[in-house]
Fold this protein.
Amino acid sequence: MTESTFALPIYRWKPPEDIFADINDWWQSNRAEGKVSILYSYALGKAQRILSGIDASVGPIYTHGAVERVTQIYRDSGVALPPTRSALTAAKKDLAGSLVLAPPSAQGTAWSRRFGDFSAALAAAARLTADSFSPITRIGPDYSES
């Protein structure tokens, strides 16, 4: 079963490889500055889709517990995903330059503030926004009535 709100032909999606290139560029830029890249995404499905398409060679990937639990279910079902580690147990010094996947509900909480200097983005069904990075403006379709 899948949610398909944006499957209608009136929506025009960027090619997935372009979206993943934007995410990888954003992450690499943050890594060069020693910042943690927190990408807020739904724990079921969206986070695993991101994991399946990003360039894991950029650096270590950490997850919020909710994301890690679902990701492990995917792995147990035979889905190949890059290695991830628990962000909760990571030493702060090890997080610099990493990518952290967390559910949107973690945004603005003590959990996310523990990362210090970070750049955050939101990957949702219709958008990907970043706090201080303009090339990633949205992940989703362009809408047209025609």
About this structure: The chain has one domain: 34-139. Residues 126-146 have pLDDT under 50 and may be disordered.
